[in-house]
Specification:
seven-stranded mixed beta sheet, single chain, mainly beta, 11 strands, four-stranded antiparallel beta sheet, 123 residues
Length: 123
């Protein structure tokens, strides 16, 4: 059973940092693009970042460029989202998703989704 599990969320003050992890259970996800989406209360889900299967291509939403960094370690079956200079508007549930198409995963999410991890930025 393919599974994506997010971790690393929590409560952090504005300006702080968190690193989210997305661990995947199926080795063939090495060939999948992995994306991060988020959904704040009362808002639609939005794409945050995406990384290709090789790690050679990445994309970021304008709202997080220069603050967030996505990376992957296929040896550990894990994708990371390093979030720095966090703002209250980054508060949301963050989901990772996996898909065969990089573009589709970037724009709409992939075929597989995790359960999400809560990130709250507040003083």
């Amino acid at each position: 059973q393919l599974q994506l599990v997010e971790s690393g969320g929590g409560l952090v003050q504005p300006g702080g940092s968190l690193r989210l992890s997305c661990a995947y259970s199926k080795i063939t996800l090495d060939y999948y693009a992995i994306g991060w989406f988020r959904q704040a209360p009362g808002k639609e889900r939005e794409g945050v970042s995406c990384i290709s299967s090789s790690g050679g291509s990445t994309n970021y939403a304008d709202s997080v460029k220069g603050r967030f960094t996505i990376s992957r370690d296929n040896a550990k079956n894990t994708v990371y989202l390093q979030m720095n200079s966090l703002k209250p508007e980054d508060t949301a549930v963050y989901y990772c998703t996996a898909g065969r198409s990089y573009v589709a995963t970037l724009l709409r999410g992939g075929d597989y989704w995790g359960q999400g991890t809560q990130v709250t930025v507040s003083s």
